[in-house]
Specification:
The protein is of the alpha/beta class and 329 residues long. The protein contains 12 helices and 14 strands.
C-alpha cells in the first residue's frame, strides 16, 4: 500500500505558555531547572499568576515534531486528545493550518485541554510544569487504523507512558504499523519518564520499536550508567536505529553496527531550547521517510534543532524546506 503520510505521531496535545524567568524564580517556586513536572489545575493557576508576560503557542512534543515534518514539506498526521473548549479549538486550528491532518474526536466532558507552563532562564534552559488535562484521556479507540497503516513511520511520545490507556494505544499503534509493514519510532522524552518506567520502556523498545530517539541524559538513565558510549551501544543493540542528541556536541546515530557522528549547526545565540529535540526528530524522520542516508537524516535534524533554539517557541518560524535547500540538504 502506498503511504499517504510520511510521519504520523501520537502524543500529548498541549498549548504552551512560555515566559522568561531567572534562577531565583525557579528556586522560589520549587521548580527543578530543565525538568518537566506534572501539575494539577490548582498549581497551574497559581504558577500562571506569578509568571512574567508570556506567549502562547500550540505545542506538545510529538505535535511539534509533525509540525517540523510539515515545514520540511512532508505529509504528516497527528493523534492526540483535546477538550471541546477554546484551547482545544485553537490547537486543532493550528495543526490544520500547517497542513497536518488532525481528526481525533475532542473530549466532550471532563478535563480541559492541556497546557504547559514553560519558564525559560537566560541560559536558554526550559523548565516545564504541565497540566495534562484531556491528554490523559487518549485511549486505543483514538488510534485510527487508516492513519497508522498509511504512515511510513509512526512516532510515539514517551511522555504518554504515564497514562495506562495511552500505553495501550501505543501497543495498538505498533501492531497496526508492523502489520502493514511500517516503522515505529519512539522518543524517550525525559529522564524522569525513564526513571518512572524503565522496565516497561526497555521492553517496549526491544519488542516494538524500530527507531529510538533520546538525549544523553535519557539514554544514560535508561541503562543506569554514566558511560555515554556504552549506553548508546546498548540502545543500538535493541533497535534498528538509535539517534541520540548531545546539545552543542551534536548527535550520534547508531545502526547496523555503524556509528555516525553528526555536528551541531552553529547558532549565533541560543534563545530557548524548547522543542530542540522535537525538531531534531522532525528533520531526522523526514529524511528517513525520503530515503536519505542516515548521516543526512542527522544533519536535517541538527538544522531543524538549530532553527528552533534561535527563537522562543517550540516550532519552526521559517520554512525548514527552504532552509534545508539553502544549506545544500
Amino acid at each position: 500500500m502506498t503511504a499517504l503520510y510520511d510521519v504520523a505521531a501520537i502524543g500529548n496535545a498541549i498549548v504552551d505558555v512560555i515566559a522568561q524567568c531567572d534562577d531565583a524564580f525557579l528556586e522560589r517556586e520549587g521548580l527543578v531547572k530543565g525538568s518537566m513536572a506534572l501539575i494539577d489545575p490548582a498549581r497551574a493557576a497559581s504558577l500562571y499568576d506569578v509568571m512574567s508576560a508570556a506567549i502562547e503557542a500550540s505545542g506538545g512534543s510529538a505535535a511539534n515534531t509533525v509540525a517540523g515534518v510539515a515545514s520540511f514539506g512532508g505529509k504528516a498526521a497527528f493523534l492526540g486528545k483535546v477538550a471541546d473548549d477554546q484551547l482545544g479549538r485553537v490547537f486543532r486550528h493550528d495543526m490544520n493550518a500547517i497542513g497536518c491532518v488532525f481528526t481525533t474526536p475532542p473530549l466532550a466532558e471532563g478535563p480541559a485541554t492541556a497546557q504547559s507552563l514553560i519558564n525559560v532562564t537566560p541560559d536558554a534552559q526550559r523548565t516545564m510544569s504541565t497540566y495534562l488535562g484531556a491528554c490523559v484521556e487518549l485511549n486505543p479507540a483514538d488510534v485510527d487504523p487508516e492513519i497508522i497503516e498509511a504512515a511510513q513511520i509512526s512516532y510515539l511520545e514517551g511522555y504518554l507512558f504515564d497514562p495506562p490507556e495511552a500505553r495501550r494505544a501505543f501497543a495498538k499503534a505498533a501492531a497496526l504499523a508492523h502489520g502493514a509493514g511500517r516503522k515505529i519510532a519512539l522518543t524517550l522524552s525525559d529522564s524522569f519518564v525513564v526513571d518512572r518506567h524503565r522496565g516497561a520502556l526497555l521492553g517496549f523498545v526491544e519488542t516494538q520499536c524500530d527507531i529510538v530517539f533520546a538525549n544523553a541524559a535519557e539514554v544514560c538513565a535508561l541503562f543506569e550508567t554514566d558511560d555515554f558510549d556504552a549506553a548508546v551501544k546498548a540502545l543500538a543493540e535493541r533497535c534498528e536505529i538509535a539517534a541520540v542528541t548531545r546539545s552543542e556536541k551534536g548527535s550520534v546515530v547508531a545502526a547496523n553496527g555503524q556509528l555516525h557522528e553528526i555536528s551541531a549547526y552553529p547558532v549565533e545565540k541560543v534563545v530557548d531550547t524548547t522543542g530542540a529535540g522535537d525538531q531534531y526528530a522532525a528533520g531526522f524522520l523526514f529524511g528517513l521517510s525520503q530515503g536519505r542516508p542516515l548521516p543526512i537524516c542527522g544533519q536535517l535534524g541538527s538544522l531543524a534543532a538549530a532553527e528552533v533554539i534561535d527563537h522562543y517557541g517550540p516550532r519552526p518560524q521559517v520554512s525548514l524546506r527552504e532552509l534545508a535547500e539553502k544549506n545544500g540538504l
